[in-house]
Amino acid sequence: MDRERVLLSQKDIPQKWYNVLADAPEPLPPPLNPATGMPLEPKDLSPIFPVSLIKQEMSTEKWLKIPEEILEIYKIWRPTPLQRAVRLEKALKTKCRIYFKNESLSPAGSHKLNTAVAQAYYNKLEKVNRLCTETGAGQWGSALSLACHLFGLKCSVYMVKVSFQQKPYRKSLMHIWGADVYPSPTNLTKSGRAVLEKDPDSPGSLGIAISEAVEDAATHPDARYALGSVLNHVLLHQTVIGLETKKQLELLDEEPDVLIGCVGGGSNFAGLCFPFVPEKLKHKKIRMIAVEPTACPTLTRGVYAYDFGDTAQLTPLVKMYTLGHSFVPPGIHAGGLRYHGVAPVLALLVKTGIIEVRAYPQNPVFEAGVFFARTEGHLPAPETAHAIKCVIDEAKNKENKCIVFNYSGHGHFDLSAYDAYLAGKLEDFEYPADKIKDALRKVPKVG
Ligand SMILES: *Cc1c(COP(=O)(O)O)cnc(C)c1O
């Protein structure tokens, strides 16, 4: 066995997804219907999601079988390698062993295709004709475009306007895979028009784009909505990452001491870490660290409260860490990870002390990304570079630890952000306390 790069064969692709809710120390606070304030019922979600995904969303069953058709497509790039970052270790002069799970090898360039394929499959099964979604930097939009194309669905993507203008190549990728892409806020939806009326130059935000995509799906009977993170079923689909990693570490006779991932909505982090939660609950040796930017400090400075997932307050109320649904991250922030909230399950595990949190400003994050590219060769997505910054900090002065992180995506479409970093044009940004206070004031009072 080559100890630097553990490859599994296709028969090792997990046959089931793991549902951490079956093992969580406390039940998840129920999502609430925003109109009634009562716990959400499956029928409340049926205008926007197919029944099978609503079932998964509400399931507490521990293992859910992965359909054959999805496994067939996973075989395009799964299992992904678990790779030892030997050159990074040497450069850091650390005694730690550092491994990364390389999810950047999917055709869409990130972990997001794991759930995109599953979501497209279930929608196709229920005769949906078109999927609507939002995208920030474009990773999710491109993953869903490809998944829809593979299952013969149409795809409409509302792309945050500032990214639409700054990241034209992800848009090209979506076009190649057959999707329609709109810069959000658009005048195609009520929520988009409302934003444009107040601020014709709005750069857009994920919250706004979500409102537009949800509205599009809810007002067209043959369309449904797809979300690339945050929801229980999305996190569930991503557990193939951690399940494979477990197998790969066993082959190496390794037990992880520290697991690290970056957090936008929480799906790649959950995908790597959740399958290790049962061990953590048994002997508590494994640390799990969720890393976010100081420019959008949801886990480190947000409140644990019920809030909306979007700006127009169309989504259910969910209990999570939030910066307030009106939060718009600063335009100077180049490093992705811009969502005001976080997956409720991840929030619960942070609240109960199972998961640790950390935030970094963007310059040290990009520095870590470049350092990784110069040692290991791979150029990480700026999101992924947050995890790498944390890995580097953890590896310093620590003897003999096994550190594993999720290499969630490559940075080949993020070169303008790297250019800005190399030119010294990136500003570090701490979200001002009074601005956070303002946004938090708009969190609805519930219970
Ligand atoms: C979308 C994305 C993230 C953040 O989303 P999560 O749901 O928190 O995983 C991180 N890394 C990459 C490469 C992404 O595309």
Write the layout of secondary structure elements.
Elements: E1 5-6, E2 16-18, H1 42-45, H2 51-58, E3 63-65, H3 68-74, E4 82-84, H4 86-92, E5 97-102, H5 113-125, E6 130-135, H6 139-151, E7 154-160, H7 161-166, H8 168-176, E8 180-184, H9 190-198, H10 206-218, E9 223-225, H11 232-238, H12 240-251, E10 258-262, H13 267-273, H14 277-283, E11 287-293, H15 298-301, E12 303-308, E13 317-322, H16 344-351, E14 356-360, H17 362-375, H18 382-395, E15 402-407, H19 415-422, H20 433-441
Parallel strand pairs: 5-15, 6-7, 6-9, 7-8, 10-11, 10-15, 11-14
Antiparallel strand pairs: 1-4, 2-3, 4-5, 12-13
Helix pairs in contact: 2-11, 3-5, 5-6, 5-11, 6-8, 9-10, 11-13, 12-13, 17-18
Bound molecules: pyridoxal-5'-phosphate.
The site of pyridoxal-5'-phosphate has 19 residues, from helix 6, helix 13 and helix 18.
The number of distinct β-strands equals 15
Q: What is the number of helices? A: 20
Report strand order across the widest sheet: 1-4-5-15-10-11-14
| Fold-level CATH name of the largest domain | Rossmann fold
The coarse overall form would be globular
**Unreliable runs:** none
Strand content: 15-25%
Radius of gyration: 20 Å
- CATH class placement of the largest domain: Alpha Beta
